[in-house]
Amino acid sequence: MSGPDGKLFIISGPSGAGKSTVLRRVLETSPVPVRLSVSATTRLPRPGEVHGRDYYFLSDKEFRRRLANGEFLEAKEVYGQGKWYGTLWDEVRSGWDAGEAVILEIDVEGAMSVVPKVPGAVTIFLHPGSPDELERRLRARRTESDAEIARRLEVARRELEKLPLYQYEVINDDVDRAAEEICGILERETRPAEGTT
Ligand code: 5GP
């Protein structure tokens, strides 16, 4: 059983833009009930990542089965390495059924494929401000090889060109400030339009 559609927020931005840290703060301080959708992926967990919390880590076979079964709102192969990522409809619907707005943290292509499918979806682009700053953060994280960093920077440069496709731009110069700005957007966009109550 499923209730009416709720509000969907889509946040994208270059890898290493500090999205996860900002979003954790948003979830702690949001003025409206909200949950972060847990994506499914076929990539391996990084140290410390937990199945069901950070991602649903699925085998290629299981991912393909669910894809064929129509269980994904969107799914795509990222980084040309045969690693799949996707948003399960179940994740989104269970948030809406609980009366919560749902946030998707997905890449630009995924975001743009969701927009026509979910009327009223709100798009936010979160980025560190400059490619130099992004590179500094990726290197400080020390979880990717040089080749992987180079690939991600290339993807990030291309993603930055997509900024005009988004309704909101948030610069992550400071975690608290960026989270506060996103909370302001959540509040504004979930408020019933004037004259409809
Ligand atoms: P990471 O491997 O660093 O966790 O994520 C790599 C990229 O995959 C990020 O740019 C992230 O936004 C994107 N991503 C994560 N989950 C999803 C998803 O469900 N769908 C799509 N399209 N992209 C995703």
Characterization of this structure:
The chain has 197 residues and is of the alpha/beta class. The protein has one domain (8-190): P-loop containing nucleotide triphosphate hydrolases (Rossmann fold). The protein contains seven helices and nine strands. It has helices at 19-29, 60-68, 89-97, 108-114, 131-141, 146-160, 175-190, and strands spanning 8-12, 34-36, 40-41, 56-57, 72-78, 83-88, 101-105, 122-127, 168-171. The strands form two sheets. The protein has a five-stranded parallel β-sheet with strand order 2-7-1-8-9. A hairpin with a 4-residue loop joins strand 5 and strand 6. Helix 1 (19-29) packs across helix 7 (175-190) and helix 5 (131-141) packs antiparallel against helix 6 (146-160). The structure holds guanosine-5'-monophosphate. Residues 15, 39, 43, 74, 76, 78, 85-87, 105-107, 110 line the site of guanosine-5'-monophosphate.
